[in-house]
Amino acid sequence: MTTSLTTLPETGRTKSRTPSRGWLGQLLRRLHFYAGTFVGPFILIAALSGALYAISPQIETVVYADELTTQATGPALPLADQVTAATTYTGGGETISAVRPAPEPGATTRVMFEDPNLDESESRAIFIDPTTAEVKGDLTVYGTSGSLPLRTWVDQLHRSLHLGDFGRYYSELAASWLGIIAVAGLCLWVMRARKTRNASAMLRPTRKHKGLRRTFSWHASVGVWAAIGMLFLSATGITWSQLGGDNVTKLRAALDWSTPAVSTDLGRDSATRESGNDGHDGHAGHEGNAGHAGHESNAGHEDGAHMGQTGATDAGGIDPADFDMTLAMARDINVNTGLVEILPPADADSAWVVQEIQRSFPTEVDAVAIDAKTMEITDRVDFSDYGVASKLARWGIDLHMGTMFGLANQIVLVVLAIAIASMVVWGYVMWWQRRPKHDPSKKFGITPVRGALADAPWWSVTAAVLAAVAIGVFLPMVGISLLGFLIVDGVLALRARRLCHRA
């Protein structure tokens, strides 16, 4: 086995190494360093904004208490009366897109209208007291999650920094690299644990040391505990991304992992068509390729639009009593939760849709299509009809958005987000702490040694290159940024070589 000399770019010095023995660790350290250094700020922003989004439902209930709740008591009026009150308030010329009956006593009913002045997946919601039919509020809501303006703003911050589609590349970059950084860091932790033969001590930060060693112990110990969560957030976050998310959708379609959706077509026999977006809420973009209030499809933290919706209906073109009739029929079939959405038909050849929108566990997303003229059920889809992949996708989305297990889910997400943000900060602190003490001109620490693949076995080089190409093609933001890392590294190598020759 030959020993080679590797030039340290920061100092021009050389050191002996045996690459065929330590090449993997060196490669992982350099990858971890470069990705953490350049992608760290994006991950930091995504983590902190994600933590804020996780607790936004509680903030929303306080800020919009007047619209969301009512003090009136007594039996609820028919939906027909509530819809009529909402259409009277709007002037009767707007198009109804959906109605969400009050899910429990003390809550309000939402009658939603299309508004050409709003963005994709947004609608105008009139909040109605179900007991008195009094109008309690008039707000813009987003996607299946029904996010109100504050949560939608937070979602768009998390999803795109309020920069539109261009801004979404930031979150895709963060989500794509988060998993890779976690894997590299976990592998380095295992290597170090095997070398020290004291893995248990590396599971907690040390108080014995100061400076770099203490910072490293916090970074490494928190990282190993957070690794699974980081991988989960990365995998689910990618499904909402523009470039990588599109590849995920194509892969699911190729593997027949699409999510069943109720058919509203009355012009043919009822059949279930396939939809590749899971009804993703999109966080307001996380929900569909639109975002978290749209956080559910490749449109974004929902399909952006109401899940399964095929259109909207002019308020004057339907009988408000049909809302009561279709809801009653659906209750007798498979819609048995409080959180329900009623979607009017798009035209005479389309059916009504009544669907569950409960995102907490146990999952309730059953849907039924109804022909109001013949009072027949034309199609139905139950969550039990979902394949394993579709169920996992549904659960993954709801866990990512913090809705599956309520407050406990939210707390875990906030803690995980804080841990990720802390590791980014510790990473930069370690870089600064590793600066050469003997050279005041060096403002930052030295980087891990380059050239790990120079003398590695040919099969290792081949595997590394193929893996990088495959990941780069499937996750384009990884491929583009990795190419950028290589260019920067090459420039630094040339600069170091010139400095070395001058010395």
Give a written overview of the molecule.
This protein has helices at 19-63, 65-68, 79-90, 149-160, 164-196, 212-238, 243-254, 321-333, 388-401, 406-433, 458-474, 476-502; strands at 4-7, 14-17, 95-100, 109-113, 122-128, 135-142, 259-261, 273-275, 280-281, 295-296, 313-314, 340-343, 352-356, 367-371, 376-381. With 503 residues, the protein is of the alpha+beta class. Among the domains are: 4-29 and 426-502, no CATH class; 66-152, Nuclear Transport Factor 2, Chain: A (Roll), CATH 3.10.450; 252-406, no CATH class. The strands form five sheets. It has a five-stranded antiparallel sheet. Strands 12-13-14-15 form a four-stranded antiparallel sheet, covered by helices on one side.
